[in-house]
Design goal:
189 residues; mainly alpha
């Protein structure tokens, strides 16, 4: 049973990374307002939301199984307060930071209709910081698993996907709708 929890924690962590990557890529594509007759914007938004929820589910299992497993002695507080764990404090601390950022993004998304767009958007930018911190957490705490060729390939593939999406977004510039909103805000409306 001890190893089942360890394997569950490792496996769900390894699945969470490509899910988080896909969520980030879909979010970046959504900001670019990519749409067409066969791929309306609401479909992209729904896919982004559902992948994000699936990511949160895998992270919940990842964190829970790591805490329930008595081997490392990880406490609930270690999962959310950075750098207080006695088990790999730096690497687990990075995981706590990534989780905290993702929880902030998740909670503000749930409350999106009740908070300002500016606040939601500001917190949502944390998703960009969450991804590399989560990646480094996995690389550092992954031990021998992090050196397996398929794990290296998974990490490399996720990194390439994020770099391509972010590079595309930066090259794209502002969408005309964004410029209209920005002008309207500056104009005092």
């Amino acid at each position: 049973m001890d190893q089942a929890l360890w394997f569950a924690s490792r496996a769900t962590g390894l699945v969470a990374l490509p899910l988080l990557t896909l969520s980030l890529v879909l979010g970046v594509i959504g900001v670019g307002r990519v749409a067409g007759d066969r791929w309306p914007r609401f479909t992209l938004a729904a896919l982004h939301r559902n992948v994000s929820l699936l990511t949160m589910l895998f992270l919940a299992v990842h964190v829970s199984t790591a805490i329930i497993d008595p081997y490392a002695g990880i406490r609930w507080v270690d999962a959310v307060v950075p750098f207080v764990s006695v088990y790999h404090p730096f690497w687990l601390g990075l995981g706590a930071i990534a989780l905290d950022l993702l929880l902030a993004v998740f909670l503000t998304s749930v409350l999106r209709g009740h908070i300002s767009h500016r606040l939601w958007r500001g917190v949502h930018w944390a998703g960009y910081a969450c991804w590399p911190i989560g990646l480094v957490h996995g690389l550092g705490i992954g031990g021998k698993d992090a050196t397996l060729s398929w794990v290296i390939g998974l990490n490399a593939g996720c990194t390439v996907a994020v770099l391509i999406a972010v590079g595309w977004r930066l090259r794209m510039g502002s969408h005309p709708d964004t410029e209209v909103r920005r002008t309207a805000t500056v104009g005092g409306r």
